[in-house]
Amino acid sequence: MIAVVPAEEPTSERTVTLSLEWDRGAGAGYVAFGRIGAGEAVSQRIVENPLPGIGDVVLDFDERGRLIGIEFLDERAVPPGLATP
């Protein structure tokens, strides 16, 4: 779990559960910011990796425009703290 401090209330904290799913066969992973229900991701944006040969990432947003998940299309694009063993 990660403690998140909202900008409006710098002295309060709330907890957000992140989950990381990895498909080794496909070489792709997904980080969800909380639980994502079926059909909840209504908009996606592909972000091209600036380095040639490394896969892109896909940002998932809900109907309110909030970022709810990130799909990594190449494990080399995963941040070091989330890298799979």
What does it look like?
It is globular and about 40 Å long. It is an all-beta fold and 85 residues long. It is built from no helices and seven strands. The chain starts with a strand and ends in a 13-residue tail after the last strand. It has one domain (17-82).
Kindly report the spatial arrangement of strands forming the biggest sheet.
Answer: 3-4-7-6-5
What's the total count of β strands?
7
Q: Provide the residue-averaged pLDDT.
A: 80
Strand content: 35-45%
Please mark out the parts with pLDDT under 50 across 5 or more consecutive residues, or reply none: 1-7
Note the overall shape. globular
- Separation of termini? 19 Å
Number of discrete domains: 1
Structural class designation: mainly beta
Give the ordered list of helices and strands: EEEEEEE
Give the count of helical stretches. 0
Q: Radius of gyration, Cα only, in angstroms?
A: 14 Å
Estimated helix fraction: under 10%
What's the story with the biggest beta sheet?
5 strands, antiparallel
Quick structural gist:
By secondary structure, the protein is mainly β.
Topology readout:
Layout: E1 2-4, E2 14-16, E3 18-23, E4 28-33, E5 43-47, E6 57-61, E7 67-72
Antiparallel strand pairs: 1-2, 3-4, 4-7, 5-6, 6-7
Observed structural traits:
single chain; 85 residues; mainly beta; 5-stranded antiparallel sheet; two-stranded antiparallel sheet; 0% helix; 40% strand; disordered N terminus
